[in-house]
C-alpha cells in the first residue's frame, strides 16, 4: 500500500498539475480505502484478529497505536463481559497490564476449578456477600462506562485474549491483586508476575 501511495505521489508530481489537484486525488484515494475497510465483513474482521493473535500478521505489541490500528471488536455476551471486567478492573493499568488481567480470566475459564465460560467466571459468586470474585460485580454501585474510547480499546484486548493468543504474561495465574492490598491467600499462593500495579498468582498445585 505504501509503495502504491508513493508511486501515485511521484506520478502526480511529474505531471503539470496544481497542488489542489494533487490534494483532491489523494483525498479521493483515502476515501476509497476507508469505504473498503467499512465494508469488511464480520468474518474477515474476526479473521484479522485471529491472524494477529497467532502471529501470522506481525506480533502483539502492548501499545495504544497497535490496538488503534485494529478494527472495532465485535462479538457477543462473553466479549461484553470480558470488556466490562477489564474496564472496571484495569482501565487505569498499562496495556500490558490489561492483557494480563484478561489472561487471568481466560486461565480460569480453562481451569476445571472455575466455570467454563467468560461470563460465568466473571459473575461467579455475584450476589453473595463477600463471595464475588471481581469486586465491581458486588460493590453495590452502578457501573457506568463513561470513557468510550478507552472501552473500545479494551474490547480489542478482550477480543484478542479470547482468541488463540498465547497466554504467557502471567505464567498460568488465576489470581491477582493490586500492590495496595495484601489478601490472606497471597501468603500461600506462588507469585508468578508483577505487571504495573498488579501482582499475579497461581493456585498451589494439589
What is the CATH first-level class name of the domain at 76-169?
A: Mainly Alpha
CATH architecture of the domain at 76-169: Orthogonal Bundle
Radius of gyration of CA atoms, rounded to a whole number: 22 Å
Low-confidence stretches: 1-6
Largest sheet: 3 strands, antiparallel
Number of strands: 3
Specify the structural class: mainly alpha
Q: What is the percentage of strand-forming residues?
A: 5-15%
Strand order of the largest sheet: 1-3-2
Helix content: 40-55%
Oligomer: single chain
Question: How far apart are the first and last residues' alpha carbons, in Å?
Answer: 54 Å
Features:
206 residues, mainly alpha, Arc Repressor Mutant, subunit A, 3-stranded antiparallel beta sheet, 8 helices, 3 strands, 48% helix, elongated, disordered N terminus
General description of the model:
A hairpin with a 2-residue loop joins strand 2 and strand 3. Mean pLDDT is 81; it is low at 1-6. This protein has a three-stranded antiparallel sheet with strand order 1-3-2, with helices on one face. The chain has helices at residues 2-14, 19-38, 42-53, 64-68, 77-90, 95-110, 118-122, 148-161, and strands at 175-178, 191-195, 198-201. It has a domain at 76-169: Arc Repressor Mutant, subunit A (Orthogonal Bundle), CATH 1.10.10.2520. The termini are far apart. It is built from eight helices and three strands; from the N terminus they run ααααααααβββ. Helix content is 48%, strand content 6%. The chain is mostly helical and 206 residues long. Helix 5 (77-90) packs across helix 6, helix 5 crosses helix 8 and helix 6 (95-110) packs across helix 8 (148-161).
Amino acid at each position: 500500500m505504501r509503495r502504491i501511495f508513493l508511486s501515485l505521489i511521484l506520478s502526480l508530481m511529474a505531471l503539470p498539475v496544481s497542488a489542489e489537484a494533487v490534494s483532491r486525488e489523494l483525498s479521493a484515494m483515502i476515501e476509497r480505502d476507508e469505504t473498503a475497510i467499512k465494508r469488511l465483513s464480520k468474518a474477515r474482521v474476526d479473521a484479522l484478529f485471529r491472524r494477529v493473535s497467532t502471529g501470522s500478521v506481525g506480533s502483539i505489541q502492548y501499545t495504544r497505536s497497535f490496538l488503534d490500528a485494529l478494527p472495532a471488536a465485535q462479538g457477543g455476551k462473553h466479549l461484553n463481559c470480558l470488556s466490562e471486567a477489564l474496564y472496571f478492573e484495569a482501565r487505569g493499568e498499562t496495556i500490558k497490564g490489561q492483557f494480563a488481567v484478561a489472561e487471568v480470566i481466560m486461565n480460569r475459564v480453562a481451569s476445571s476449578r472455575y466455570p467454563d465460560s467468560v461470563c460465568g467466571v466473571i459473575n461467579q459468586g455475584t450476589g453473595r456477600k463477600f463471595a464475588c470474585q471481581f469486586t465491581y460485580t458486588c460493590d453495590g454501585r452502578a457501573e457506568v462506562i463513561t470513557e468510550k474510547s478507552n472501552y473500545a480499546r479494551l474490547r480489542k484486548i478482550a477480543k484478542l485474549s479470547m482468541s488463540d493468543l498465547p497466554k504467557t504474561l502471567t505464567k498460568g495465574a488465576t489470581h491477582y491483586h493490586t500492590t495496595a492490598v495484601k489478601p490472606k491467600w497471597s501468603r500461600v499462593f506462588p507469585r508468578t508476575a508483577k505487571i504495573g500495579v498488579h501482582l499475579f498468582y497461581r493456585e498451589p498445585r494439589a
